[in-house]
Amino acid sequence: MHSNKNNHLKIISFGLVLGYSTLVPLAAEADEVNPMGYVRSQADKISDTTDGRLNISGYINGHYMNHNGTPKLVGKDLDKPLFQMREASIFADFSLMDNLLFSTELETSYDFSSKSTSGRDDRFEALFNYYYFDYDVASSFDWDTDKYGSLSVRGGRILVPFLAYNENKPNFKQYLMSQPFTAQQLSPVNNAAISFQQYGWTDIGASVNWTYAFEDAGLFDLKLSIINGLGSESDALDANSVQLSTSPTVRPRDGLYANKSDWNEFRDNNNDKAFVAKASFSPFSVPLDIGVSYYNGAWDNDENNDLSMYGVHLNYSRKDWSLRGEYVQADVEQTAGVNPVVQPGPASLNTTTGDYQMNSWYVEGSYVPFRYGENDNRYVRLVARYDDVDTNDKAAFTPFDRSRVTLGTEWGFIDNVRMRYEWQRHNIDSFENAPTPYVAAGGKEQINMQMLSVIAYF
Amino acid sequence: MKFIKITFVCVSFLLAFIAVVPSANATDVFLVYAGEDKSIKKEVEDSLAKDFKVKSYNVDLLALADYSGKQKAISKISKAKLVVFIKDKAAEILDKGSFPNVFSVTSGKDIDNVIAMINSKGYVLILSDAYGNLSAIPSLKLKDIYLRTEVELNGVKVNPVHLPEDNPLRIAFVDNIIGMSSEELKQYWLKDGSKNVPPKSLSSEELVIKYIARKKGSIGYVSRTTAESSNLKIIEIK
Questions:
Q1: Distances (CA, A) of B151 to A28, A42, A203, B145, B235
Q2: N or C: chain A end with fewer CB closer than 10 Å?
Q3: Interval A53-79 mean pLDDT
Q4: Do B64 and A280 count as a contact with CB atoms less than 8 A apart?
């Protein structure tokens, strides 16, 4: 696919020209130039035509990203600039019956970079990130929800309710384009930390959601789910391998994977189902959401080894400032010494450690120093985040034992369109233990990243 | 290619389902409230439950919902014949503009107005013959007409009329279209520095019908029930 680079660029250029030549004049007829307002009005028309039974919304974002300090891999240079339409998503909710809703998200992405930069086989990817039915049990049976709370059941490919980020992954719901380590390496929101693919953590399963409003105090929300779960067909959970440009093959220990998680795969590598629970509380008097999450399931083919995760989250959001944070710990059962990577490489990197623990946390704060425009709807937001991750506490060295500072700014310059700039500095811990081939391939103790992105939603 | 085929088949099936299976539309009123306003919601709910099918939605749930939770809530609520927002906080969290037929209440005393709104099937816009085949007016333009910052509609000098201040249709119209409470609208005209005069208020829907039929360029709102029994043209508010 990458060999047809010029053809793709022509198609994209044509698409952009066509899109702009259609959207902008139409939008200009409105009270102000607002392309997303025009798209929103078309979505509203669909809703009106179907008597409110089909509701559509969505978003698109693109980014230019540049790292400095990552090791060169065979077939992939992570330090080269990466230019992607990272996500273009459409959410559709079909109201099938009075208390039955079908929901799906069609997510696509397009990679403008060379394959040697992104490592992606296909420039264009599309999938159904989730697709599920929601049945409102409480409404169906006319429960007194004040007395018993509301209850709904969800089944299909569901968004896994674990921590807060995964259920709020779209960038327009966040203030930074980059994801926190908790999501990137552990939760896991994406399938691989080194592949820059951003699909959410979804899985085939079912979930029960009970919500109860305590008099004058707040809302308690409980989600209990059974899903296929995370896993690996290998004897080791952290069996993913890459080849450094200096030739040895190593384990990057880059975090948890959703095994067999493609949108059209319905079973994973074993018959054991994972159990996920999330309990949250939101007081009426304070714009706060705090909660705890739990995950447990066997990850291996023989169902002998468990993965257990414990998480805590907090979100405090005012109009002009916010504070967010998550902590997650994963306990992995694993046999020591098995399944070393076949190709030669440093033993310290490639030997399985036995039982180990992963953990990650982040704190993120944002503040809007000034607003302008009609109704103060234009603004500049300043954002800072600190996060930390260790994907294997027993390993002598892993490049994903690191901390990171992110500073960003978000400019809301048109209704529903935001531009962001982010700067990051990663510090890899215990770098004195880094094997020689890692350093020889260009791996540095500090990695810097800059990113410019645009997000539009309707 | 397989992905596109599956997408096409699934979407076609769902659209066909929506087209063939009618919406139950069994709910008369959906009460949208914030947790802190639960007592008012309870009062309104208890008063309405004897005669109408009432459901309620706590907007604080959105803080705990996933990223399409707001859209799901709108899908669920918008099928009701009337959506009633309890006090301001609920409307701040869930946009009132997303619903076609909305009414706001601030206390349990507004129940009679809610009942009047349900029985009238909401307000619709009617206008004199002078506007020819005009079929729709954007809500922002309508707001400007009622605030007298827009004096013409389709090349005709426009003359808007209101119902009395305590009429539930007027309360809903001023809230939804002008975006003010009755008191705020009163203050607006007191503070207005221009020589504009507020639109005339007529004492009943019947008088509004008669006035519009007679007076060129006039425009007003009445209940759907009243409008459908007149010969005047009903137009859509976009």
A1: 23, 29, 57, 6, 19
A2: N
A3: 90
A4: yes
On whether any CB of chain B is under 8 Å from the CB of A335, the answer is no
Residues of A within 8 A of B55 (CB-CB) are 139
| A54-68 vs A72-73, strand pairing mode | unpaired
Q: Which residues of B touch A134 (CB under 8 A)?
A: 72
| ipTM exceeds 0.90, yes or no | no
pLDDT at A197: 59
In chain A, where are the structural domains located? Answer: 2-457
- Superfamily (CATH) of domain B123-237: Periplasmic binding protein-like II (3.40.190.10)
Name the DSSP class of B192.
-
For helices A5-28 and A35-49, the axis angle rounded to 10 degrees is 80
For the record, the structure tokens of A131 come out as 């697709």
B154 at the A interface (CB within 8 A)?
no
Domain boundaries, chain B: 29-120, 123-237
Token reading at A163: 């921590």
Question: Token digits for B50?
Answer: 């004897």
- CATH 3.40.50.360 assigned to domain B29-120? The reply is yes
Q: How far is CA A51 from CA B12, B16, B19, B82, in A?
A: 17, 14, 10, 14
- Chain A residues closer than 8 Å to B139 by CB: none
Is the per-residue pLDDT at A188 higher than 90?
no
- For A144-258, where are the alpha helices, taking DSSP H only? 145-148, 181
Give the residue among A445, A382, A406 at the shortest CA–CA distance from A180: A406
Cα B28 to Cα A114, A146, B17, B42, B87: the distances in Å are 57, 19, 23, 16, 19
**Do A97 and B35 make contact, defined as CB atoms within 8 angstroms?**
no
Separation CA B103–CA B92 (nearest Å): 14
pLDDT tens, position by position, A370-382: 999 877 889 999 9
Decide if A37 contacts A27 (C-beta within 8 A).
Answer: yes
